[in-house]
Amino acid sequence: MSPPRFSPVARFCLAAVCTVGVMAGPGRMAVQRASAGATTLSFYEYNIYQADPRTKAIIAHYEQLHPGVSVKFAPFSTNVVTDLSSALQGGTAADVIIPTVMQQVWNDVPNGYFSDLTPYLTKQADPYAPGHVPVANTILPSALGQERFFDGKFYCLSGATVDSAFFYNMDIFNKLHLSPPQTWAQLLAMAPVIKRAGYIPFQYALGDSVYGDAPPGLFMALENMVMDRNIKAMDANHDGVVDLRELVNGVHKGLYSAHNADMQAVFTLLKDIYPYMEPGAAGVNFTQDQAAFARGRAAMNYTGIFYSIVLDNAKVPFKYGYFPVPQVTSASSPLATPGMKGTGTLGPNGSIPYCIPTTTKQHGHFAQAVDFIQYLLDRQNIDVVDAVNTNLSVVKGGANPARFNTFLDVSMHPARTFNAELTLPTSFETGRAQIIQAYLTGEQSLSQAMDALQKLIVSSANQAAQKYRL
């Protein structure tokens, strides 16, 4: 049986009960807007709002603004994927939902489960926004571009973002006179120094193959650096992003292929760092990984921003900081090209996106649901939710702690294929992670791993092409 799948936010809401951060109360709207008749709006949010009094106050304030409306939290079973799948298939989905990641919604678009929100988000006046501009106009353009599906439509909207980077133990670095590496070559050069000093250079959840988790995203960040030429060739409309249609076409044209030297280079880059991971890394899951770094014996760990909750709550006896995935240069791979490459692999789509199932309209709650999303995306409300859940605001004028600037910068510079890759069947990311494990541990040769990965790539692309009628 495969492990339960949680969204990145859900994992840390469960582990830390989402109680970090201190912010002001919920955003206060200038005008009270009464609703016609009594309405009970159901909201699936897997404890993002109901677990903390500050976020519960946001919901209570909405009910005060709308005396005829009550918001009911839908049950959360600890498994977001199965919760939503069962509800959507059974026609019992909540009126407004927060999915695991936005790509989960995109996977269900062909099934007709989610409403196209484009005209309501991009054209309809938002009563809670300054000047009543459409709510999409309040989102930073660099984030908004990531939230549009390849068909040009919005099925969700997020006012927050998250991403992954390297956490590093500053005490170990200072003791060994090291600085955060800027290149992959520098990372590999310092690894043996750290190991000789008796520390684990790189704590990494190699055993984590869960869709949407941070650790498997490292592969996509490295892809973006050594596959530059083929990524540019796949980007047919030259918008700097490879969308799902372009990725599937790239697979069929052999541009995105495990038989190409550039994808094989990603495997060899990971092979180079593997000796400096903790012993038995393939057996280390997400939870074990977090606990191990907190003990202070590892110098670096690649994971999501949420991990700061765990470290802060644990009151670890060392200082820690962050740096983005080091850039791969020609010193590490002949396939690297000049220039900085984005390393973001979660972004606003992996944060707290709000969506409306098509059944909401059947319940007669669609207009109210749109209004509720507009309210939730108000800048002050987003600031509170972000502080409680350790997310970062992508609403214009949002308040973000300076300590997390690394994650915000990473999020605004994503790997060019990550959105499309996460929109392939979820078995693609989980299967690829398992192939990487088999290769690094010596269970499979590079040739065997590439053959297995190529079969997975082709199968996933064909499924996507059929599903989305590409």
Which short descriptors sum up this protein?
disordered N terminus, 2 domains, 470 residues, alpha/beta, single chain, three-stranded parallel sheet, globular, 21 helices, D-Maltodextrin-Binding Protein, domain 2
CATH superfamily of the largest domain: Periplasmic binding protein-like II
- What's the level 1 CATH class of the largest domain? Alpha Beta
Helix content: 40-55%
Separation of termini? 32 Å
The coarse silhouette is globular
Strand ordering within the main sheet: 7-8-6-9
Number of domains: 2
Query: Which structural class should the secondary elements be placed in?
Result: alpha/beta
- Report strand %: 5-15%
**How many DSSP H or I helices?**
21
- The tally of strands reads 11
| Contiguous runs where pLDDT drops below 50 for at least 5 residues | 1-7, 10-32
Q: Architecture of the largest domain in CATH?
A: 3-Layer(aba) Sandwich
Major sheet attributes: 4 strands, mixed
What does the model show?
The chain is built from 21 helices and eleven strands. The protein has two domains: 8-160 and 351-411, Periplasmic binding protein-like II (D-Maltodextrin-Binding Protein, domain 2), CATH 3.40.190.10; 164-343 and 424-468, 3-Layer(aba) Sandwich (D-Maltodextrin-Binding Protein, domain 2). Residues 1-7 and 10-32 have low confidence and may be disordered. Strands 7-8-6-9 form a four-stranded mixed β-sheet. Helix content is 43%, strand content 9%. With 470 residues, the protein is of the alpha/beta class. Helix 9 packs across helix 12, helix 11 crosses helix 21 and helix 20 runs antiparallel to helix 21. It has helices at 8-16, 53-65, 80-90, 102-108, 118-122, 141-147, 170-175, 184-196, 217-226, 228-234, 244-252, 261-273, 286-294, 307-314, 359-362, 366-376, 379-389, 405-411, 418-423, 426-440, 446-468; strands at 39-44, 69-73, 96-97, 156-158, 160-161, 164-169, 200-203, 298-304, 320-323, 353-355, 392-393. The two termini are 32 Å apart. Helix 2 (53-65) links the parallel strand 1 and strand 2 (69-73). The relative contact order is 0.19.
